[in-house]
Amino acid sequence: MADERERVQPSGVWATAVGVARVRALESEREDALFRDPLAQAFAAAGGLWPSSPPPDDEGARRRRLAVSFSIVIRTKFLDDLLQQASVSGVRQVVLLGAGMDSRAFRMDWPEGTRLFEVDTSAPLDFKASVLRQGRAVARCERITVPVDLREDWPGALAAAGHDPAAPTVWIAEGLLVYLPEDAVELLLARISALSVVGSWMGLTLGSPGVIERFAADAAPGSAASMWVSEMPDDPVGWLAGHGWDAAGYTLRERAAAYGRPINTPPQREERPGGLISAVRR
Ligand SMILES: C[S@@+](CC[C@H](N)C(=O)[O-])C[C@H]1O[C@@H](n2cnc3c(N)ncnc32)[C@H](O)[C@@H]1O
Description:
Blueprint: H1 15-28, H2 40-46, H3 59-88, E1 93-97, H4 104-107, E2 115-120, H5 122-134, E3 142-147, H6 154-160, E4 169-173, H7 182-194, E5 201-205, H8 211-215, H9 236-242, E6 245-250, H10 252-258, E7 276-281
Parallel strand pairs: 1-2, 1-4, 2-3, 4-5
Antiparallel strand pairs: 5-7, 6-7
Helix pairs in contact: 1-2, 1-3
The protein binds S-adenosylmethionine.
S-adenosylmethionine binds near residues 13, 100, 121 and 176.
């Protein structure tokens, strides 16, 4: 077990998880925060991203950074609400795919008997564990980490960790699918669907159309945008229906307005619903 001095530093795709924590730490400092993540600052600091760096000088880069940060805040709130609804409906199994520095096990209220599985590769889970140990963080539900690459046999690893496919599950893939090629996304969804009884829930975030091209200018080697490879399908709701899910798709703009954070600039391109998905298993 790595302690503070020998903690592996973020690299590759999992470094993006620490960037997300930085954004959540900044949001948590606002008086009108849409959520409070008391661990986010510790994750960001352990990864060298706190205090947060000043915005870039370049106007375009600054706008793109703000847009990504804003979308992270809105999606976090969207999925917090979805998890709460799933809990209220009686779901007691939660699976966070590509969990990164997600601290929902520690910061949300969970009904008794909730089991929450965090699936990610071992490096971010080890890093996270060392920060949690240092902060003496205590989970508010049963929390089980599952170190596995989602391109490998993660259903086997999840089963070995105690996931019960006969009971409903709420699945979250937040900020994950954009990093997986289309065929891997398809396989992931097929596997989730095979493990989901009626009454299961799912919350997804998908790259909006054209986002990869728009952000390419900012895509310095190693940056999050440089690793984005997939966007949402033309008809995300239909795509999910084909896998047995009743889905609803939202735009960031629509959800942001609903949460009292309206986007006041007019859309510069068509905004199709589907970047934020909530779905229930038929
Ligand atoms: C942008 S972060 C989002 C983390 C978390 N879902 C959140 O929103 O706080 C993407 C996460 O997906 C994970 N990830 C990407 N590809 C993966 C793969 N093939 N197997 C397991 N995890 C993966 C990364 O390690 C990282 O933690």
